Amino acid sequence: MPDDALPFPRGTHELALDPEVLARELAEELLGDPLDELDTSEPTALDVAAECDRGLALLAGEAEARMQGLRIFCEHRDPRAIPLLLPLLRASCPIVRMSAVYALGRNPHPLAVEPLLVLLAADDNGYVRKAVAWSLGNYPEAPVLNPLIRSLQMDVAAVRLWAASSLADAGGTGPAKADPAAAQLLLSLRIDSESAVRSNSAWGLGRLYPDLVEPRQRELVEVLLHTMLHDADSTVRDEARLALEQLEQPDVLERLQTLVDDGLIG
């Protein structure tokens, strides 16, 4: 398997670097990580079954074969892979840990929740934590809400970005979770320094709106309106407007139309 097909380069000398430095260097070498490269085509059931059989055999092999197997289960679901994936979360190599995390995001299992949360809290590699933040969006019923909130408050930008998205999934399971999730997303939309994080926060708020009580819904609308008009980044403004439009609330749509009529938005 060529180096450029792996989620990380084969070399391990870089691993002593600061995670953010490592992430930047790796990003320059890669077209993307497994999250960006997942195949969106629709293979036949027979194709998937054959690929999963091959993946299971590869996971049981040596290091290079194992990496190929991990890539297969970043794309396909098969419960037979779980016993082979879980031990790889403890691998010394962050390349392996990251790929196993993505595979367990594609193949969620209750036994993965605790080790994934440990990695989110304590792994020293930013790519691994980013992978966990994405994967936990596929565990909305698990106790992931508070860990994702902490990551959105404190972690590096790439992790915060996916924590915001996964927080919308975790909060979308009912009002009890929706309110604290929305509270953090509202705060991040106001204060986060990274435009991509603010954009994802706006998107997440739009998804949480139906599960919120009326006072929080009103706050959400006002913050999104303020963001749409005043955020320094046009992509964030556009995301806030889209979130408002997708609420499909007549009073909100009327306010948007008034802003259009007054020439305040296009």
Q: How would you briefly describe this protein structure?
A:
By secondary structure, the protein is mainly α. Helices cover 67% and strands 0% of the residues. It is elongated, with a radius of gyration of 20 Å.
Question: How does this structure look, described?
Answer:
The longest helix has 17 residues, at 175-191. This protein has two domains: 1-125, no CATH class; 140-266, Leucine-rich Repeat Variant (Alpha Horseshoe), CATH 1.25.10. The chain is an all-alpha fold and 266 residues long. Helix 3 (45-59) packs antiparallel against helix 4 (63-73), helix 7 packs antiparallel against helix 8 and helix 10 (157-171) packs parallel to helix 12 (195-208). Helix content is 67%, strand content 0%. 42% of the residues are buried.
Which regions have little confidence, pLDDT < 50, spanning 5+ residues?
A: 1-19, 25-31
CATH topology heading of the largest domain: Leucine-rich Repeat Variant
**Compute the gyration radius: what is it?**
20 Å
Mean pLDDT score, rounded? 88
Instruction: Give the helices and strands as they follow along the chain.
Output: HHHHHHHHHHHHHHH
Distance between the termini: 50 Å
> Which architecture of the largest domain does the CATH hierarchy give at level 2?
Alpha Horseshoe
CATH superfamily of the largest domain: Leucine-rich Repeat Variant
What is the CATH first-level class name of the largest domain? Mainly Alpha
Strand content: under 5%
Task: List the quaternary state of the chains.
Answer: single chain
Domain tally: 2
Derived from helix and strand composition plus strand pairing, the structural class reads: mainly alpha
- Number of distinct beta strands: 0
Largest sheet: none
Describe the global form: elongated
Helical segment tally? 15
Question: What is the helical fraction, as a range of percent?
Answer: 55-70%
